[in-house]
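Box 3.1 A note on notation
Throughout this textbook, protein chains are presented in two layers. The first layer is the amino acid sequence; the second is a token string describing backbone geometry. Keep the layers aligned when reading.
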Amino acid sequence: MTITELQSQRRWLLWRLEPRKGAKPDEKPTKVPYQPDGRRARANDPVTWSTYAECLAVVSQFSGIGVALGDGVWGVDIDVCCDAATGKFTPESREIVIGLDSYSEFSPSGTGCHVLGVGELPGDGKQIVKQIPGCKQIEIKGSGCYLTFTGRHLSKTPHDLLDRQPQLDSLCEHVRQSANSGTLRVIVPADEETKFRKLWAGDMSDYGDNHSSADLALCIILARRTNCNAFLIDEQFRKSALYRDKWERVDYKWSTIWKAIQAAKGAPVPADDADAVEEDGETEYVVDALPDFPAHAGWFPKGEISLIGGSSGVGKTSWAMPLLESIRQGQSVLGHPVKSREYRALLHDRSKKAMRRTMESLGLKSESVERIIRLSPAQQACPPSDVLEASIVENPGVEVWLIEGLDLWISDMNKSSVVQAVLGGLQDVAMRHDVCVLATVGMPKQKGKDRYYGRDSLFGSAALARKAETIVLLNMYDETDNSSVRQCDVLPRYSAAERFHFTWRNGHFCLTDAPESQPENTALYRMERNVFAKYKPGELVIYSAELGPEGTFYRWRKQAAKDGKLVYAGGRYLVPPAREEKVN
């Protein structure tokens, strides 16, 4: 559900900060809901709700606008979880926002955030209000409640309300079971040996069964015992029962160890800058905007995933590899300025030898081949995000990653939940490491009136277009002839599309002008082609079965005479004598 679709629904109300009845002078005011005409609204009474436009027209008379929840829309309110000045979030709240992966925005105070999604609260549907680590409290709301709405979108979260029922169910279960700690505290008791033995055995009961808090507590003890040697902490932690797959996430492991070392030295445990969900701001693009274009007209933003789509054999790899080489060398790309950046390509759907032949045909040097990483069968069986993250760690400083043949790495391209999970995982990795991820995917062949170059023309689920930032579409200019011209459409999410035409010449794609428009491959066009192939100049044109449908023949002949393609005289139709060539 898009925000526009949500705003068109009659589920909006206004709110005003007012003191509670009988409240003390220093007591915090409450948000009282109102209708646009000034009468009180009720979050559980749809009769008192309005459209967003109706509320927006009079919002200056109130404190803000709110959205009523329920009927398929849920909301999560996380209080006091970020710094209003810097926009930096606590690790715990950031994990919740990223895990829900739906539309998110700052709260009116700027110190909290709201997440809106599609689904229903599990169980009895009652709202959950609880204190959890990393924030003042979390409120999970559904029917009978409302959330304030600011429109201050959190960047790197979806712009739409998405169906996240499994994630919502998991969060509700986690919050219900979590301890009411209020803030993140790592407690090491006086009897450190007892605590160490419990943690070493995997007992997390002293930490509300919060695995991350237990990890940090054990690392603090290990830091004291290893004289803050990070490598020994890692080595010893792997031997404990707390060790799990998450420890192999390099960002998580070293962040935890670093915090433990700081705590062991007596310093406060700070929030990692990498655990920030920032407000929309300036984005760094791999291919910069043209000089006269706004900055957001660049291509392939870092921290995001972009896609290159095209049918088999159209030249997706042959287009992408020279582009990456130009970026590496700091050369302009189709007139766009670039900054020199290192790249790597993960090869999934082709052999290294086949890729080498492609590179040689493109005239690229051996150093380009060295930047290609052929995935082993074991790697191909792993989630793409895990393989990408491991590759990033092994290749520090690489800012651009190409995944060749991503669609062959996705088990069901037509299933939205499967596609979203894969792209969401890749997007999380791109965001954590601030790299640009490009991936090639298939696209159906298109021709004639079927030709469509929108973002949704990629093969498979519409989740591809919704998750990707810049989309490049490659296709033959005209499938009805033997032209070697390819049409390339570059579709950034927030700026105008750019169109180019290429032809294959001397082993390279070269820019060219668009070919002259060809007649559409219609029944009348085919009839005209067949007639002029059969009859020579000056001959009488009469119907025969090999020309095609009889009705089509007579319709074409009548129109051809009007257009001057045939001569009509004495009730007969003739090919003009002056005709010198057939219509191709």
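Confidence is low (pLDDT under 50) at residues 179-190, 270-281, 448-452, 579-584. The CA atoms of residues 92 and 134 lie 5 Å apart.
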